Amino acid sequence: MDLVKRYIAAVQRELPEAKRQEIGRELNANIMDQLDALAEQHGGALSEQQVADILKTMGHPRHIARQFCPPAPLIPVHLMPLYKHTLFMVLGVLFVLQVVFMTKGWLTGTDMGLLLFIKGLASGFIADAVFGFTAITVGFAVAFNGKQPGSCNTSSQWQPQDLPPVSAGWQHISLSDIFTDLATYAFLLLLIWFPLWQQTFAGAAPASEIFSPLALVMLMWFSPVILLGVLSSLWQLRQRIWSRQSLALNVLVNLAFCMMFLLLAASGPLLQLDTERWARYFSPDAFQDSIRISLVIIALFPGYEVLRDLLRLKRMAAN
Fold first, then answer.
1. Residue 47 belongs to domain spanning
2. Which whole number is the average pLDDT over 232-248?
3. Are residues 299 and 176 in the same domain?
4. Closest to 192 in 3D by CA, of 264, 110, 293
5. Which of 27, 136, 228, 261 has its C-alpha lying 20 to 30 A from 319's C-alpha?
C-alpha cells in the first residue's frame, strides 16, 4: 500500500497544515473501502497496477485537495456584484477625467494632432484603468478578507418595498452608455468654452480658434442643451432604469443634438482652417464638404435614438 500512502501525502501537501491529519485519515478510509470492495470482487489481494488504477480514477492529488478544502477567492463570491459595480463606476469616472485632461492639453496649444490625441487618450486611460483595477481589487481583498456573507451591511440593509418594478430588458441602462455620454458632453463643453475661459480668466494669450465664428456662436447657444444632457446622464446613473420621464428627457436632448448637427452642416464651414498651410496637401473646400457630410451622418445617431425612445414611450404607455 505504498502507493496509497504516497497519494495521501501528495494530497496533504496541497492542504493547510491544520487540516492535513483530519483529511488524510478521512481520505485513507475512503480509499481503503474502495480497495476492500474491489478485493472482494476479485477474491484475493490486489496488484500494484490495480491500486494505481483506483487512484488514477479518483483524480490528481491537487484536485482532491481542492475538493476537501476549496481555495478562497481573492474577492468573495457574495461581494462580486458590488466589486463589479464599483469597478465600472471608477473606470467610467477615470475615462471622463481622461477625456477632460486630454482635451485641455489639446486646446492649450500643444502640437498635438488627432491621432496623437486619440493615442494619448487611449494610453492615459489604460494606465489609469490598470491602477484603478489594482487599487480596487487589493482594497476589496484586504477589507473583506475572511468576512462572511452576512457581514457586509450594504447587502443586509434593504427592504422588499424598495425594489424597482418589473421592467423589460431594454429598460436597464448600461453604465458604459452613461459614461460614454458623459465623456462626450465633457469633450464638447471643453472644446467650446476652454479657449474663451483661458483668454478671459487665465490671462493667457488667445488660443487659436477651432470653429468658424458662426459655428462657435451656435455651439455656445447650444451649451445649455449639453448641460441638460449631463444632468440627464447623472439622473440615469442614479436610477439605472428607464422611466417615462427619463425617456422623454432623452428624446428632447437627442432631438436637439440631431437638429444642431444638421444646422451646423447647413450653416457653412464648421472649422477655421489655415488654408495657406494645408492647400498643398488637399483642398480646404473638399475637406469642409466632407465635414458637413460627416455631421449629417453623426446626426443619424441621435435621430435613431429619438425614434427608438419614442417607440419605447409608446410601448410603456400601452402597458
1. 2-68
2. 84
3. yes
4. 264
5. 228
Residue pLDDT, tens place only, 43-92: 777 778 888 888 888 888 888 888 887 777 777 777 787 788 778 878 88
294-302: average pLDDT: 88
- Within 165-243, residue ranges assigned H as helices are 175-200, 213-239
How many domains is the chain built from? 3
In a domain, 151, yes or no: no
| pTM assigned to the model | 0.55
pLDDT digits (tens, 9 = 90+) for 30-44: 888 888 887 787 777
- The 10 Å CB-count burial string (b at 16+, else e) for 124-142 is bbeebbeebeeebeeebee
Contacts of 221 by beta carbon, 8 Å cutoff, 6+ apart: none
DSSP 3-state of 145: coil
Distinct helix (H) and strand (E) counts, the chain: 11, 0
Whether the predicted pLDDT of 162 surpasses 80: no
Whether 89 and 20 share a structural domain: no
Residues 64 and 80 in one domain: no
Q: Are residues 115 and 204 in the same domain?
A: no
